[in-house]
Structures are given as C-alpha cells and as structure tokens.
Amino acid sequence: MRGKGSAFLRGAAVLTCGTLLLRLSGILFRSYICVRIGDAGMGLYQLIFSLFALAVTACTSGLGLAVTRLAAEGGGALGTLRRCVLLALSASLLACGALWACSRPLAISVLGSELAVRPLRILACGLPFMACCACLKGWFLAEQRPGVPTAADLLEQAVSIGGGLALLNLLPPLEALMLGSTLGEAASFTLTGLCFLRCAGGRERGRPAPLRGILRIAVPVVSSSFTRSGLSSLENLLVPRGFRLHGAGFEDSLSQYGRMQAVAMPVILFPAALVTSVCQLLVPRLASAAARGDKAAIRATAGRAIRFTLAFSFLVTTLLIVFADPLCRFFFRSAEAGNLLRIMAPIVPLMYLDSVVDGMLKGLDQQLFAFRCNLADSLLRVAAVAVLLPLWGMAGYAAVLFFSEIFNASLSIYRLLRVTELDADPVTWVLLPAVAAALLYYLLVLLL
Fold it and tell me: What average pLDDT score do residues 319-344 get?
C-alpha cells in the first residue's frame, strides 16, 4: 500500500508540475496575443475554439476514459487500446470532414466573420492526431505512467506557441495561431506514439474488452460531453449577442466576452492544475478499488480528495481577491479584467470541487448520472444567458456562472456521498478552510 501511495504522489507531482507549466505558458502566450490582436480579436479567437470544441468532443471524449478504466480493471489492455484507437480514428475523420465542409457557413452565419473560415479548416486537420493521442494517454494513465502524457502536453504547448509566434509575421494572426495549434497536436501524437511503441514492445496483446463494454463507458461520456459542448458553444455564441442587446456595439461585445473568457477565466483556472492532476489519477485508482469491492478505500480516497480540494481552493479564492488587479495588469494590461476576476473568485471552491467530484464519479461508473446532471446544467445556462444578459449585461453573465456552479456541484457532491456512503464533515471540509482563508485575507490587507 505504501508503494502504491508513493507512486500516486509521484504521479500527482509530475502531472501538477506539467499542468502548471502548461497553464502558465498559456497565460503568458494569451497576454502577448491579447496585446497583439486586442480584446475583440480574442473574443473571435475564443468563439472559433468554442465551435471547434464540438468536433474535439465528438472524437476524443469517452474513449480515452474507456481505455483507462478497462485497463485499470484488468484484461487485455493492448487489445482494448487498439480497438479504441480504431474507433477514435474513424470518428475523428468524420468530424474533420464535417468541420471542413461546414466551415464557411459556420463562419459567416454563426460567427459573423469570414475571417474564421480558414482557421476552422486548419484546426480540423488536427482532429485525427488528437483522437488517437487521447487513447494512448488513457493507456499510460492506467499504467501509472503520467510522465508520458505530461511530456506530450508540454511538447504540444511548446510547438503550438512557438509555431504560432513564428507564423504571426507570415500569415493573418488567427490563421497563424490555429496552424501552430495543429502542429502542436501532431507533435504530441508523435511523441506519445513513439513512447507507446517502446513501452509496449514485447507485451502480449491479450483479449480485448468487448465492444459493448467499451461503448458502455464511452457512449454516455461522449453523449454528455458532446451535448454539453454543443450547449456551451450555443451559450458562448449567445453571450456577445446578449451584450449587444444590452446596448454594446459589435466590437465592444466581443471585447467584453474576450475579457471574461480569454483573460479572467484562464487566471481563475490556473491554480486548478493541482486538483485536476489529482483528479486524473483518481479515475484508475477508484476504478481499481471498485472492481475489488473495497468500499473503505473508496471512502478514504474520496474524503481526502474533498478535504484537500476545499482547503486549497479557499486559499486560491483569497489570493485572487487580494491580487486581482496586479495579476491582470501584469499579464493582460487590463484593469476591467481585474474587476471580473475579483467578482468570480468566491465561486472557486465549488468550481474546483465540482471538477474533482466529476472525475471521481466517472471512476465509480457513474457517467450516466454525470450526463444527466451536465445536460440539465447546460440547458439552464443557455436559457439564463438568453434571458439575463440582454437585461443586465456582464452582471447577468456573472450571475449565470454562479448559479451554474452551485447547481452542478450540489448535485454531483450529493451523488458522490450517496454512492460512496461517505459521511459529510462540514466543519473540517468547509468551516475551517473558510475561517483560515478569511484570516489570511485580513492579514494580507493589513500588510498591503
């Protein structure tokens, strides 16, 4: 048990350091291109990726988790991986063709800008690399080798940023950035594939998991992710429209959207690298414990994860409130983003906890519940955005984000407590971290 615990901690440390580097480099890169193309350009950049996320979800979500779950539970891991890669490749080629064919009507009719046509087509070419790479990363996570996915993600980020910056003087900005992203995906797949060939050489393929078993895990996750991604894309398209109905012009509406999604949210999610890394490693750990029927191990793991996440997220909330303005001025030269960051900081504990709980539920074969919960949340968000933004503008958008996190996290936490039979401990989980965070806030204010 001690060896397994040490391996888990080493894996969490590797994933955390890698994810922190990824997010820090992403923030620095966004700060540069935000100055280069402006808030309105960043808004269009985010909208393009919002549409692209639909295609990504269709061909990457679900199968990577299926590889991790089935390999961790035992069985023919290599045979299962091969079957999942073939499924992912087929889905990605279909998604690539659909996105390429529909790029012009999507850019003109949906995004309102012909500048988005070629960026969408460039991004479509990276889908097969992303789909196959997701399955390979799932196998490495099941093998307790998180260093390979982390290295692949770092290489992808380095190539994406380096390629995008190198091409900015040769191509229009959006095309240069999207081509850099596609080159990064190809580099990540190449590295992961080479590492897989080296690690899996000489192993027996084994009898693969039946197609029905793979689809039982993948289909609910894909359905949930695709539905939520589609509703999220619709929501993102409605946000600039809501700002315009509230009285903003076209450029100003894109600027407001860009400040929230491309400036404030990356800063909020940057510290979440620590909890998301732990979450990735909890899926095979909980799946293995569930396969053994070890309920005590499941409860112990879930309880520690919740306590750690809440203690860390309350600390992050305090730091974001106190240092919102200098952070946004330093990275993005934007005072308005500092106000948004300060407003959104109190929801961080639920946001981080929801992410960790969602990962634990997937490890416990609760993906159908996650699908229903995410679907209800997304439908409510779209309806709220359509109604509240024309009335209240940015204040309405902040209210929607708060309500969404409270709703989704409450359902997920209740389900986890019920499935694991874990007794909630409000004093240790919530009260003590909240009091400590409040004391830290007053201390920092006094010192500063």
Answer: 85
Q: What is the pTM of this model?
A: 0.74
> Are the C-beta atoms of residues 425 and 267 closer than 8 Å to each other?
no
Task: Give the position of tokens 């750990």.
Answer: 285
Percent of the chain topping pLDDT 90: 38
Q: Under a CB-based contact definition with an 8 Å cutoff, are residues 25 and 161 in contact? A: yes
Amino acid in the structure at residue 288: S
Quick one: pLDDT at residue 35?
A: 79
- Tell me the average pLDDT across 40-62: 85
User: Which sign does the torsion angle of CA 436, 441, 446, 448 carry?
Assistant: positive
Question: What is the 8-class DSSP label of residue 428?
Answer: I
Between 53 and 262, the more confident residue is 53
Q: Residue 1: pLDDT above 60?
A: no
Q: Where in the chain are the domains?
A: 2-447
Question: Which residue, chain included where needed, has tokens 């009335």?
Answer: 391
- 405: amino acid identity, one letter: E
Residues 6+ apart with CB under 8 A from 208: 75, 76, 79, 80, 82, 83
Compute the average pLDDT of residues 420-436.
Answer: 92
Distance separating alpha carbons of residues 370 and 353, to the nearest angstrom: 14
Cα separation of 55 and 6, whole Å?
Answer: 38
Widest CA span in the chain = 65
* Residue whose tokens read 């991986």: 81
- Average pLDDT score over the chain: 85
C-alpha distances out from residue 355 to 145, 153, 430, Å: 22, 20, 17
- C-alpha to C-alpha distances, 140 to 80, 137, 195, 202, 213, nearest whole angstrom: 13, 5, 10, 16, 20
Distance, in Å, from the CA atom of 361 to the CA atom of 364, rounded to the nearest integer, reads: 5
HSE-CB for 324 with a 13 A CA cutoff: 22
